[in-house]
Amino acid sequence: MALPxxxxxxxxxxxxxxxxxxxxxxxxxxxxxLSVGVYVDDSGVTPVIPSVLEAERRLLEKAxxxxxxxxxxxxxxxxxxxxxxxxxxxxxxxxGRSATAQTPGGTGALRVAADFLLQTGSSKTIWLSEPTxxxxxxxxxxxxxxxxxxxxxxxxxxxxxxxxxxxxxxSATPGDVVLLQGSCHNPSGVxxxxxxxxxxxxxxxxxxxxxxxxxxxxxxxxxLREDADWQAGLARPGLEFLVCSSFSxxxxxxxxxxxxxxxxxxxxxxxxxxxxxxxxxxxSNYSNPPAHGGDxxxxxxxxxxxxxxxxxxLAGMRNRILGNRAALVDSLLAAGVPGDWxxxxxxxxxxxxxxxxAGQVARLRDEFxxxxxxxxxxxxxxxxxxxxxxxxxxxxxxxxx
Length: 401
Ligand SMILES: Cc1ncc(COP(=O)(O)O)c(C=O)c1O
Known about the structure:
CATH topology of the largest domain: Aspartate Aminotransferase, domain 2
Bound molecules: pyridoxal-5'-phosphate
CATH superfamily of the largest domain: Type I PLP-dependent aspartate aminotransferase-like (Major domain)
CATH class of the largest domain: Alpha Beta
Distance between the termini: 54 Å
Strand content: 5-15%
Structural class: alpha/beta
CATH architecture of the largest domain: 3-Layer(aba) Sandwich
Number of domains: 2
């Protein structure tokens, strides 16, 4: 028997991770990789943050067990994540109308969300922002969803086009699923303002849509609670939605695969019922989550001093990104690069969209060894005092000629 391959043509490499392979093979000394969504410090290193090191030291001392975790993860972790997402005194916490499961990263949460919804009879249509993170369409299409898109950015690419976004969502069929990025929109760095979140909540209620909030960057934009401003629009009494959390970025735990899926239901009975179905989705997928990364996050969130340390660590990453944003905008303006750069200064999260054509992106890579994704999405954290002049000069060159 032969493998059931449709043809012998290899599949295209992952649009983002594939670029890193090309970057590694590039021998030009001036090369700069701004393509991957991983935080790096000034020396280009993705650090293990001090709060994580301390939590790991404590875990090692405790010498726990490597026995399986429950299907939905450790209870203390699940509660700590719920409180982190909503704040411990939120109505959703007090009413007990949510259920959280520990998952392998934010990607695991998204895939479990997709399986859970299809398995429990949801609409098979999901609406994604255009543009969005390239793994979103892949995850939901592979799970069996039909994909639709809603326009997200205006012509300038610097602001949310709320009229077109909400107009399109207003045409969705009741029951359809809509994926919303909670903060630090990937790839644009452009987030809805509070009015747009409120109006989104209205459309969700009117059209009876089911939101999935992809919350992969809590605290990476302006702060832990500031980045939860989507909740003012969506976390309304009675409204049901899902939240996919990732701790890859805000705890810098990328390869530990730590995340969570929270289902918010109309009441605690429906939440308990949802959890029972979530467990089936998980059990038939990876059975139960990996423990180590979740134990690190759980240890930090349970200890007052470690939690303070983590918030300092997180602020350090966030402030460096904001500093890089300012330095980038200042340099683009000082170099007279044509374009509307000022809004990038106050965008949220690790990414900025320069708004380049495919040809300009290819020239950046081929002629200048500057690696960026899609329409010129850059990882702002990858900028350093040393590489910024080369990046800005290269962007100027491809835009001007
Ligand atoms: C928008 C968005 N969602 C989810 C994820 C998933 O993160 P992870 O699976 O690494 O936790 C990412 C990672 O880049 C992302 O950018």
